[in-house]
Amino acid sequence: MKTRMMKMAGVALLALAAATPGWAQKKTLAVVVKGLDNPFFTVLGDGCALWNKQNPTSEYTCLYTGPASSADEAGEVQIVEDLINKGVAGIAISPSNAPAMANMLKAKKPKMPIMTIDADLAAADRALRKTYLGTNNYDMGVLMAGHLKQHKPKGGSVCLQLGNVAADNINARAAGFRDTISGKKGIDRLKGEGGWTEIAGCPVFTNDQIDLANQQMADVFTKNPKLDAFILIGGWAQFGPQAYAQVTDQVMPRLKSKELVIIAGDTLPPQLDALKAGRSHGQIGQRPFEMGLRAPAVLIDLINGKKVADPLYTGLDECTAANLGKCPAK
Fold this sequence. Notes:
By secondary structure, the protein is of the alpha/beta class.
């Protein structure tokens, strides 16, 4: 009799769950990136997926999403707005266009916790989010400048390759690079400070597009055969390894002699292959997997009203030909 009653209770419970929309569904913790076409964000998404695997009984699930193209700034804003309208439990955003994202958040006034990941909002808008999880981007630029100084202590001509014009993380890296290489704060363009001059036509902006990044590099190398340094503030061109190999083939003798030095952001496998092949001289790596893995736990703490530090930095790796076998740190 007792067993029969338990079975009946179980059936009733299942019926209740089926009849009540969302009763048995998990609450969504959304991680919204700039674009699903960027392999850097694929690694970040892998961290989100591992969190789900490690927390099968959690009432929450990590949803990795974003526009199909990293160039679709408006699409990313719309995705976040839709998630707010659906009432998800929390959102971690890597804003491609920080001012546009901030304007939407101001208008929507979301009730769920909002945090930024990988890229932050502009300083004036940071009250719109609870915390930032990711790289200290200014420091990333500082390290890029330090590695260039090691190879070119007397200075020279340089071209910076940036992403979207309004990407706060990329602009912070550029600031760290220029401040450090020039020895002066607040330099918006190098004009001989510290021995370095940015060439005409640079910086170039990739809009996070791999093919455009490689075309820009090829054009710069062709027009400036005596260029001393090219700085990939992000890894865009290297995310297309075949195209990047073709572009650097045209300058390989200069790369080998270090007449031309390339320093790049990120340390994904194809980038380390490029470093090993002598197609770059230093890779300053972020930790996207850690960002994706940690984001759900941070959002849950925010939901539960726990105090969370701001910012939360994930660290950097400095990979060179000398430490290639041990870099990035495991």
